Amino acid sequence: MLTALLILLGLGTLGYAAAVLRAAIVQRVAPRPEALLLGAVTNFFDTLGIGSFAPSTAWIKFRKMVPDRLIPSTLLVGHTGPSMVQAFIFFLLLGGKIDPALLVGCILALLAGALIGAPLVSRAQVWLVQTTVAVGLLIAASIFVLINLHLMPGGGSASTLSLPWMLVAIAANFALGVLVNFGVGNSAPTLIMFSLMGMDPRYAFPVIAGSSAIAGAAASISHIRIGEIDLRVVTGIILGGIPAVLVAAFVVKNMDVAMLRWLVIGVVYYAAAVMARSAWAGWKQ
Predict the structure, then answer these.
(1) Residue 264: pLDDT band with limits 50, 70, 90
(2) N or C: which end of the chain has fewer CB within 10 A?
(3) 120 C-beta neighbours (distance < 10 Å), count
């Protein structure tokens, strides 16, 4: 089963890389330098489980790098490349220790949700996208607060779930697949969900990275074809993020990320407030 996932991931990686390269060559774009740094920082911490969508959205919103309407699709396409590297690493390190039915079910569910959600972003009204992203940012920041205050469970030691809970996890991943197109990352929700269900939180990483990579590949190809992305930011995040993932995965062994979460929380709440204000203004028009 793990071999099949690795093959699927490899095929997705090839298709994704070909689509990005073709678009970059045709449009003759060069990576935006600021996006290189953004990709490096956010994907380094994403590999540690902090997530990349919320801080990336916060920075892009603060710097006005991309129009609000293009933020979700741009981040999805950009962060998919580094997520693929994470997926290969976590599949090899932890993939063999988690129930294959749970691993495959969650990944395929998120893939289905991502495919269904991709066309919705391009047709959605700007204020609706802004509202969705603002809610996602508030949820992510609130989860970080609860974790840091030790108000969320620390997780158990199980590597699988009972059938009812497995079905709940698979359904939840389908919903996350739809939401990922709107810039709502799946890292924090998946970590919390598995912890609440009594699983070892470490086993969330193959699911998070694998689903982000495989589903992201399919959704990214769709977004590239639609053209509603900023390729300069996309290529910058990819080129900056992949080396950072390798450093985080192979060099960093033990790191207390609680303080890092506190730093992220303030920025994310600010971005959520700004995004919500923009959504309110757009809705009133």
Answers:
(1) low
(2) C
(3) 14
